[in-house]
DNA sequence: CTGGATATTTCATGTTGTCAAGTAAATGGG
DNA sequence: CCCATTTACTTGACAACATGAAATATCCAG
């Protein structure tokens, strides 16, 4: 199926692997600086889009709904999130960021320097090229 | 410190975030297909470089050595890895992949289509440009 | 109104991660 | 040589995350 992979492709794949590792590392580190785990930070980030049903959070995190219960529990116990009832469907609970949660999430986002700082090395034209190449890569497997 | 971020940079950052998420997802999925967790797959991958002290594995995974103990335990109990004594220093234990472990790791690597498949969409010249841009990004924060 | 589907939680269990304490072995200064 | 320190690994206690099965409450179609 996949004939001998050319060295160039292999090199790019490896670079992407390195970027993934570094991005993850920085993300966890930034979350920890705000006393959050990576999972908590991700959920809090999702909640900035507005109150969200537990089920939807599970879909976005690609995990089981029962797992989200615990994560939101922990956010709630710190006053960063709260559960609301959905007036339209009494089965669903909407997780929502509190004011403190929104602030924390925003500070966290601001401290995510990776990818932003290194990009400063590139000219605007180069960033445009990079954007288009990445978009085509992502568009290739929808 | 960071003035209003230009939209282009923001877009690239977001694209990288998407790539990271997709890469992780595919990696975990591929590992699961071989009955491995992500952490086990990563360690097994590191072991293809030859027998490695537990300490070194911890450094490469950026976690505590005590954590590696458990991961190698689980690999060992499945016959995918083994511990050897280092003749040069009797304190250290070298984790090594067994033949079965090497096979599993190789099959897993072969099933990691992400980043390889999408790259086929790009011409060789484009991949070269992409490689150089990524290298400069990574080189910027050593 | 009833039966099936859906949303959430709880519980049991396993993996990953941290930290502190303990054992064993190397190493260096007196 | 000897002892104090450092280094490598493991163990144990504990928290977070993740899955799957079962329980509860609600919705909705027929």
Automatic annotation (TrEMBL), chains A, B:
Entries under PROSITE patterns matching the protein: HTH_MARR_2
GO biological process: response to stress
UniProt cross-references to SMART domains, sorted A to Z: HTH_MARR
InterPro entries with a match to the protein in the record: HTH_MarR-typ (IPR000835), MarR/SlyA-like (IPR039422), WH-like_DNA-bd_sf (IPR036388), WH_DNA-bd_sf (IPR036390)
Residue span(s) of domain HTH marR-type: 9-139
Source taxon at top rank: Bacteria
Gene3D superfamilies documented for this protein: Winged helix-like DNA-binding domain superfamily/Winged helix DNA-binding domain (1.10.10.10)
GO molecular function, one term: DNA-binding transcription factor activity
Full protein name: MarR family transcriptional regulator
Organism: Streptomyces antioxidans
